[in-house]
Here is the input.
Amino acid sequence: MALITQAPRGTQDVLPETSYKWQYVEQTALSIARDFGFHEIRTPVFEHTNLFQRSVGETTDVVQKEMYTFEDKGGRSITLRPEGTAGAARSVLEHGLLSGALPVKVSYVTSCYRYEKSQKGRYREFHQFGVECFGASAPQADAEVISLAIQVLKEMGLKGVALRLNSIGCPTCRARYYEALQAYFTGRQSELCGTCLSRLERNPMRILDCKSPVCHGIAAEAPVVTDYLCEDCAAHFVAVQGCLSAADIAFTLDPHIVRGLDYYTRTVFELVAEDGLVVCGGGRYDGLVEELGGAPQPGLGFGMGIERLLMVMEAQNAPFPEAPTCDLYLVSMGQAAAQKCFALATALRDGGAAVECDIVGRSLKAQMKYADKLGAKFTIVVGDNELENGVAMMKDMATGESQEVSLDDGLYTVLRQKLLDRELAGVTDLFAEVAEIG
Ligand code: ATP
Ligand code: MG
Here is the structure.
């Protein structure tokens, strides 16, 4: 029997000491998306199973092997979302957004669920930052979505991320390409894994994405899709590259990228970190909306793995904001002082300061120790004398300097000024450092 105190395999807890890093990454990503005109959409964590069967595709690994599917108490087949695109597409269709002004540009941060072998950078519950754009067929749309993903990684301070680009064409090109693939793989049929054998008939392109080393080796020598693009798809691909080059966005063409989800058409791309970890994957899915029963509308987007992004950031020592700390800890001696400290904390918090006071009933010494552990920037000790006189000493925990402050409304102004001074001193230090380097 599984231990109650052990999280299921492939899941992770984000503890209070690191959650600020997640908040930083998520909020920065959503805010950059906002600057690009992509606004947040929130959709349910579970959907009807057939939504994913239809969109992600019956012959994909995700649908065949990885979905968390169950029957609910009403007998419906429900699936925890394995990715974000299908739910977003379902939602914009359901709410008629595609009959309003186009394009419709949405962004999200969501948890995703895939029953995968858990290993480094691969979890059963993971998180994606993603964007989707509906109703834009021009090549600039492809470039815009790609540049948004790159801008997020740039803002996170990541170095050495490579953009790999490919086009997998439309159903017209695909028909010819499938024929070539079928001919090639049929010749090597005896070497393929069982799953790929079944893919040979229905969806030979999926073989290119097989994780088995043998199939992977065979796939490496298979015909490449870019040799089979129709005129329109080839022109679109050239134009996407033109837009990227015009904006100085570097890329390498990689005809082996096919992506693991069936809905992709034309442009597909990946952003790969120095150590080979794929941080972001996306592309165009012009057939998806129609597949889900809507009037045909082009679409495109990407999903960025937040766990992987954080892993690369940590590995590269990318800058995170300072961990949130306590601005002021109010140390109290006795019940009357504790009450006063609580009242002061309430007023200061109302002003937006990060203030704490004793809620455990500790001794003076233990409170001081705790304030130190919290990394409080300032402390004030309030006892009988301070209560009587309405003044106390505020200690700067970094420098050890103390200053007299009054225990009334004026405290807020003094604290705010002190915090500003500290922040400015930090900036000045930084300038000095930069000057030294330069
Ligand atoms: P991979 O080839 O690594 O399996 P994928 O093609 O299945 O990735 P997508 O479905 O395109 O990935 O999802 C987009 C991004 O989500 C990936 O680039 C990756 O950063 C992240 N991702 C996908 N699956 C996982 C997982 N099991 N654990 C953590 N992150 C994941
Ligand atoms: Mg995968």
Remarks:
- Residues 83, 114, 116, 121-123, 126, 128, 259-261, 278-281, 303, 305, 307-308 surround adenosine-5'-triphosphate (ligand 1) (CB under 6 Å).
- The longest strand covers residues 104-113.
